[in-house]
UniProtKB/TrEMBL annotation, chain A:
Broad class of the protein's primary localization: membrane
GO CC annotations, alphabetized: ATP-binding cassette (ABC) transporter complex
Membrane topology: Multi-pass membrane protein
Keyword line: Amino-acid transport, Cell membrane, Membrane, Transmembrane, Transmembrane helix, Transport
Cell location: Cell membrane
Organism of origin: Actinoplanes siamensis
CDD domains: TM_PBP2
Domain ABC transmembrane type-1: 19-207
GO molecular function: transmembrane transporter activity
GO BP terms, alphabetized: amino acid transport
Residue ranges crossing the lipid bilayer per the database entry: 25-43, 64-81, 87-107, 152-174, 186-206
Entry protein name: Amino acid ABC transporter permease
Automatic annotation (TrEMBL), chain B:
Compartments, record wording: Cell membrane
Descriptive protein name: ABC-type polar-amino-acid transporter
EC number: 7.4.2.1
Topology versus the membrane: Peripheral membrane protein
SUPFAM superfamilies referenced in this protein's UniProt entry, alphabetically: P-loop containing nucleoside triphosphate hydrolases (SSF52540)
InterPro entries xrefs: AAA+_ATPase, ABC_ATPase_HisP-typ, ABC_transporter-like_ATP-bd, ABC_transporter-like_CS, MetN_ABC_transporter-like, P-loop_NTPase
Recorded family membership: Belongs to the ABC transporter superfamily.
Reaction catalysis annotation: a polar amino acid(out) + ATP + H2O = a polar amino acid(in) + ADP + phosphate + H(+)
Key words, A-Z: Amino-acid transport, ATP-binding, Cell membrane, Membrane, Nucleotide-binding, Transport
Organism: Actinoplanes siamensis
One GO cellular component term noted in the UniProt record for this chain: plasma membrane
Tree of life domain: Bacteria
Domain ABC transporter: 7-241
GO MF annotations, alphabetized: ATP binding; ATP hydrolysis activity; ATPase-coupled polar amino acid-transporter activity
Amino acid sequence: MSEFLHVLTDHWSLFGQGFGNTVKLFLIAAVGSLVLGTLLGAFRVSPIPALRWFGGSYVNIVRNTPLTLVFAFLVFAVPKLDVDLDYFTAATVALTVYTAAFICEVIRSGVNTVAPGQAEAARALGLTFDQVLTQVVLPQALRSMVPPMMSVLIAMLKNTTVAAGFSVLEAGAIPAYMAEFGEPQFYVLLWIAIGFLILITPLVLLQRLLERKWAVAR
Amino acid sequence: MADEALIVLENVNKWFGPLHVLQDVDLSVARGEVVVVIGPSGSGKSTLCRAINRLEPIDSGTITFDGRQLPAEGRALARLRSEVGMVFQSFNLFAHKTILQNVMLGPVKVRKEKPAVARERAMSLLERVGIASQAEKFPAQLSGGQQQRVAIARALAMQPKALLFDEPTSALDPEMVGEVLDVMTSLAREGMTMVVVTHEMGFARHAANRVVFMADGQLVEQATPAEFFANPKSERARDFLSKILTH
């Protein structure tokens, strides 16, 4: 037991740095993909065919590409175009671009749960497309979007570990360092699993809070 | 009744796939006129009503409202829709907003009115349709008849030039039909321009200036209610009336 604890206490700074970067990656990519995904979701339900086509193509291409490939593209291919990207930035962009495709689909399916008559009545009043979306459709869609949205965000939090393969020191990179120190891998992996459990708990609590809050207003 | 036409449909055609739902429809509605559209289900009367504010785009022909042709999607269309109120069969009140917020949304967001001004008018409209005491409730807490009266108040809050009613009483329990028709009748008496798709023959008889009979996507005949109900000219209309009036 004491050996198990020592694995953590002897390497506080490594665990701290690793999980710190995981959280940073997650937060930036979460905000980025929510913004980009909502925009793409709006494209997919817009009355303009070109926007619908763009949103659909984005989802089909990005969602069908393995995440490691998206990372590789940003880390190895984009710098060849004379764009200066450090590994951390490249990882954030890769996660954002990839997760936005999933967020977009969550938004779209949420919008589809709202009865078409709601949007029709809003349009009949003279609301513009963005007003129909922000005033009438999205507020009603939010409730059904919460559980799948949280699943996407939790998956994204765990996807941050792919960045370890691309020279970013986040939680997924810790085992490799610890192996060099000769620490037992089983304990290291257990601590990392516990770390992710702790990080995911607030998301689960947030989901419950939002579901309860939006359940009332109807 | 003024002679100036507010709504003009010329040669309007629409297909749903192979189904020709509107066939060369010509119709002109004068300012202050109440036109009731009747006909068997599937005759295209709802589509006709929804085409007037372009909730259903048409495939050919022209629709003019207040001297201007209907614009394509975009801000110009939104502006036109704000001048044409619409009341739906399924009420379509915004489920996440209170009754008062439902009535205020258009004036505040579309017309950019001050909330205090919009609220005052919304309350007086709710008063008029007899729902003022329920202003803070959500739509699901009201009966169908009450919801439909709120929907009429919501349309009136935009101070529209015309009102479209798409089977406004078809989803109501029988005992609630009267309260909605009462509101519609009083609007008709005040000179509101109205296009009403309905199966309520009583309303057509006493509130309409003109009855339009549709069947199979065609506008078969139109006449004053007295003339139409007493002496329908077409075989289709006679057949339709015999089916609904014998019960």
